[in-house]
Amino acid sequence: RYRDPTAAEKMNPFAEQEAWEEHQIGKATLKYGSKNKKQMSDDYQFVFEDQIDFIKASVMDGENIVDEESTKLLEKSVAKSALEKLQEDRKTLPIYPYREELLKAIDDHQVLVIVGETGSGKTTQIPQYLHEAGYTKRGKIGCTQPRRVAAMSVAARVSQEMGVKLGHEVGYSIRFEDCTSEKTVLKYMTDGMLLREFLGEPDLASYSVVMVDEAHERTLSTDILFGLVKDISRFRPDLKLLISSATLDAEKFSDYFDSAPIFKIPGRRYPVEIHYTKAPEADYLDAAIVTVLQIHVTQEAGDILVFFTGQEEIETAEEILKHRTRGLGTKIAELIICPIYANLPTELQAKIFEPTPEGARKVVLATNIAETSLTIDGIKYVIDPGFCKMKSYNPRTGMESLLVAPISKASANQRAGRSGRTGPGKCFRLYTAYNYYNDLEDNTVPEIQRTNLANVVLTLKSLGIHDLLNFDFMDPPPSEALLKALELLFALSALNKLGELTKVGRRMAEFPLDPMLSKMIVASDKFKCSDEIISIAAMLSVGNSIFYRPKDKQVHADNARLNFHTGNVGDHIALLKVYSSWKETNYSTQWCYENYIQVWSMKRARDVRDQLEGLLERVEIELTSEPNDLDAIKKAITSGFFPHSARLQKNGSYRTVKHPQTVHIHPSSGLSQVLPRWVVYHELVLTTKEYMRQATELKPEWLVEIAPHYYQLKDVEECTLSLSLSLCACV
Ligand code: CDP
Ligand code: MG
C-alpha cells in the first residue's frame, strides 16, 4: 500500500472510479488495493488482486542534491536545433564544470583514476574533451566497456554529439563487429576487444589514451587489461591511462596503479525513496510485472526501469505485460515496453533512448546492463527483483555454470540510484529489508575469481606471458583455477607439457572464441568439415535467441523447431540444418517467420560465420564440406568439447564422465525426450537443475580415440561387447 484511502474515498464508493478519471485527465493520483474493487471496471481488477505490499523503509540521502539551476539550463535548451541542443546538453552534465581541471590532471599525471556517479558524463564526455584538447593528434583514444551494447550505444551517442557519422571519427569495435575506419580517433570497444588488440599491437602504439571505463565492474577482461596496461605504461610514458569507475572505493584502483591520483566528479542526485516488500516474493517475475502495473496506474508520470536476469526473462515479461495492458482499456495511459539486453538487434536498442511521448509511460525491461553502463533519461521508478545472472566456476571440477544469484548491496544501490537522476525517484525492491541487510553481500566477487580462465590463459600465453602465477593481478584468481585452465588447454593440445603454446594453440588463439569452440574449428580440418563446423560455431555464438516461441503459438513454434531435429540428430546438427536451410532460401526473412526463427539472430550468425571463414584462411584451414557425414561433424565437435561429455543414468539423468556430477538435458533440447546413452554438450546452466544446453549424441569410443590423454578405456567401459571390440581394434 502506498497510502491509506482518505476518508472521502471511504465514504464514496465511486471515489476510486473518480480517481481513475482524474488520472486520465492528467492529474497524478495514487491508487490502492481497495475495498471498492467491485465498483471498478473488470478491466483492471487484476492489478489489485495480486497487489504487492511494500513498506517504505528509508530515504536515500542525496549527497549532492540538484540545484534548480541545472534543471533550468536543461529547459532552456529545448527549442534549439538538434546539434545545438546536444551541445547545450553536454554543458548540463555534472562533469562539465570540471572539464578544465580534469584536462589539467590528465596532463599532469600519466595514470588517473576517475570516479563519478553513473550518468555524470564520464564515458561520453572525457574522450571528447581529450579530442578537443588535441590528444587525438598523437593517436587514438580507446575507451573500453564491459558490455557490447554499451560500447555501441555510447559510440552512437558521441558520434551524434560530434555531428559525425558513426564509424568515421567515432567508432566502436565489439566481437565480430568492427565499426571503425582509418578516420576513427575515438574508439569505444569492449574490454575483451582491447585485450585482443594486444595480440596485434603489444604496445598499443596507435593509442595516445586508453580509458578503462566501468572499472568497478571488474570483468575478467578488465582485470587482465589492468595488468597489461600497467605494464606498458612503464615503457610508454606518452600513453595516458584513465581508470574510471562509478563507485567510491577507488582507493583500490589507485593503490594498484602505484598510488595514481583520484579525480572525483561530484555527483548530483535527487533523493530516492526505497520500498521493500513486506514478505519475500516467491515469483519475482510475476511480482515485477504486478509492480509495473501498480506503478503505471497509481503513480505520477515518469518512466520505469525493471532489472531482469536475462533475455528469456525479459521476453516473457514483455509478453505478459503486453497481454495484461491490452486488458486495461483506454482509460489508462499507454505503456511503452522497451526491452534491452545484449543480443537485442541494434535497431531496437535505440528505442530505449527515445523520449517518451506526452501522456505515455515507458517501461524499460533491462538486464544488468542498465545498472551502470547505460543511462536512460527520464527514469523515475526502479523495480529491483534483486537477482542477476552470474557465472560461477568450480575450479575443482572445472565446471562452469550460469546461474541466477542474488545481487550485492553495491549493485542494489546502483540500481536504486538509476531512479534519482532527473528528479526524485522511487525504488521498489522485491525483497525485504531484512534480506537486504542480512543476506546480500557487500560487493560482487570479481569475475576473475569465479570463472573459467582457459580463454585468458590462452591469450596471455599468446602474448608471451608465461609466468601466470606471478602476473600482476589486482585480485589473483584461485591458483586452482589457473591450474585447471592450463590443464584444459593441455588436454585440448593448445599447450605442450612444458606449458608452451603449440601450433594448435596458436591457431586456436586466432579465434575470438572460447578455447573449446576454437579447438572444434581447428579440429574440423582433420575431419574435412570446416564449412559445417563454422556454421555451428556461429550459431552457438549467437546464444539462445534463434528460436522464438510466442505464447499463443507455442505448438506451432515447437513443431517448426522439431522439424530440424528429424532423425534425432542432436542440437548442434539441428542448428546447422537451420543455418543451411536458411541459406538455401537465399537468406529469406519470410522463411524465418514461417519457421519461428528470429531473423536478426540469423543475420548475426551469418556475420559471425563470415568472419570465422576469414579467420580460417588466416590459420590456413581449407573450407571443406562433409554435409552428409554427420559422424565427421560430431567428431569435430567432440574434439573441442570432449571434456563436456555425459552418460545416461538409469533414472534418466546424466552423469558427467570426468568429474562426476548429475546433470540433465535441457527441456528445449531436441534430445530431451530421446535420452541417448552418451552426449557431448555445449554448456551447463543452473536453473531448477543443472542443465546441459545444446547436446549431441556421442559414441563413447570417440572419446578415447580423440582424447586418449584425457579418457582411458575405464572411463567409457560398460559399453557393449562390439564396442569394446572396436576399441581393441583402435588401441
Ligand atoms: O559514463 P557516465 O555514466 O558518467 O555517463 P555517460 O554515459 O557519459 O552519460 C552522460 C549522458 O549522456 C546521460 O545524460 C545519458 O542519458 C546520455 N546518453 C544518451 O543519451 N545516450 C547514450 N547512448 C549514452 C548516454
Ligand atoms: Mg559510463
TrEMBL record:
MF annotations from Gene Ontology: ATP binding; hydrolase activity; RNA binding; RNA helicase activity
Segments forming domain Helicase C-terminal: 291-464
Stretches that traverse the bilayer: none
GO cellular component labels: catalytic step 2 spliceosome
Annotated EC: 3.6.4.13
Domain (Helicase ATP-binding): residue spans on this chain: 103-266
GO biological process: mRNA processing; RNA splicing
Reactions this protein catalyses: ATP + H2O = ADP + phosphate + H(+)
Keyword Hydrolase applies: yes
Family designation: Belongs to the DEAD box helicase family. DEAH subfamily. PRP2 sub-subfamily.
Protein name: RNA helicase
Lineage per the UniProt record: Eukaryota, Viridiplantae, Streptophyta, Embryophyta, Tracheophyta
